[in-house]
Specification:
Elements (H helix, E strand, L loop, with lengths): L2 E5 L4 H11 L2 E4 L11 H11 L5 E4 L12 H20 L4 E5 L9 H16 L7 E5 L7 H10 L4 E6 H7 L4 H8 L3 E6 L19 H11 L4 E4 L4 H12 L13
Parallel strand pairs: 1-2, 1-8, 2-3, 3-4, 4-5, 5-6, 6-7, 7-8
Helix pairs in contact: 4-5, 7-8
Length: 259
Amino acid sequence: MKGEIICDGTRTENVIRLCRERGVGIEVQAFYHPDALPDEPLLHRTIERVRGIGTVAFHGPFGDLNPGSFDSLVRSITRQRIEEGFRVALRLRAAHVVFHTGRVHGAGPAEGWIQRAIVFWRSFMRDVPEDVHVYLENMLDEGPEILAGVLGGVEQPNLRANLDIGHAHCNSAIPVLDWIAALGDRIGYVHMSDNHGAEDEHLGLGKGTIPMEAVCEALEEHSPEALWAIEAEGIGIQDSLRWLDAHGFNPAPSPTGQE
């Protein structure tokens, strides 16, 4: 892995000390909800809390957004929300920004959806600075071909995949190891958590049924430049860090986020 990040679960104050003690980055998640985007007091508090953290990542809004929708009005409001989120990310000086693919399995042919999403992200990425990395995250995607199709069509070096291994395990019949092999070095960011295959439980690593050691080894082989972001809840964060240490998966020196 290229570096380690701790997701704040919308409560930056709960993890910021741990991030500083361990010398790792933070993913700010409070602004995934559109109602938080215009909250200036929250933004100012968050800016102060993350000051001095070497790597800041930002999770953008995603609920009901669909960049490949058949409906142009849905694509328009999706663009508006994503742009609002991206402006907040820039104010936080986040160099890593996560959005979701937004595709709902079974809602029309995948081919048409992928082509519309390619047009959407090509247009959006024109105004993204080269030193800001944008990642598309799988959620309800039935397989890696959605991410592979969009990324391959856009062909933008700072647009890559955020593989959420928990989502892949519980929302897809495709094994996580096959996702990693299919996406390879297009994976630039990974949400790390565990579950038992029925729902996205955000358990600590090694607490569910994901073959975690094999997954980590595959990521190091196929996606060595990816950032690993711990997205567990509560004690699961510490459990995950201990698991990574015990299994020898230690990050490279933390990047500044402004390579």
